[in-house]
């Protein structure tokens, strides 16, 4: 019974957030099997990321700034971006700007869910710490995914230098925000909560705006309106 409770508390935040982002797709919902596949990609990259991070710590040392910006944020966001670009970016199902947000959030939540499961399993965490992890690390990964996917959605439907510009932003901005998040946790051992909470509020506020703007740029928006008028 305890094992079931630990697993359920670890899985619930990621799956709940994934459902939320899936339902936020207003005009042309993605095939559920595609969203699940991308979520599973996030699950599968956990162990390569852990190996890379372990090697970098042995090579670079255990410095909090280096760990925050490069070992943690750098490796995790680059691997997620790499999978998004090479597997999802040119996929036929990526046919509206919001799809970038959904798929980037899915891969991020796949990663965050396994990370949460490992934490719960090895620490045997109680409800309080797991609830805090749902509000902070899992939610944080979701917001980094929203930022990445928003700019990938821009890049998908532009050409030339603007495409390269938005692709660069889709990697650099989530890396920056993730690095800032980790720096706060690693450098402010006793007062981190006073900085993390405003940061998360800012990320969610910005993320909701990005979701709305991405949906408003959907090519299916006017088709759906015409269907509603005709019915």
UniProtKB/TrEMBL annotation:
EC number: 3.4.-.-
Pfam families from the UniProt entry: PrsW-protease
Primary location: membrane
Superkingdom, taxonomy of origin: Bacteria
GO molecular function, one term: peptidase activity
Subcellular location: Cell membrane
Transmembrane segments: 6-23, 35-57, 69-89, 101-122, 134-153, 165-181, 187-207
One Gene Ontology term from the biological process aspect of the record: proteolysis
Membrane-related topology note: Multi-pass membrane protein
Keyword entries, A-Z: Cell membrane, Hydrolase, Membrane, Protease, Transmembrane, Transmembrane helix
One cellular component term from this protein's GO annotations in UniProt: plasma membrane
NCBIfam families on file: intramemb_PrsW
Function of the molecule: Involved in the degradation of specific anti-sigma factors.
Membership in a protein family: Belongs to the protease PrsW family.
Protein name, entry field: Protease PrsW
Organism expressing this protein natively: Paenibacillus glucanolyticus
Taxonomic placement: Bacteria, Bacillati, Bacillota, Bacilli, Bacillales
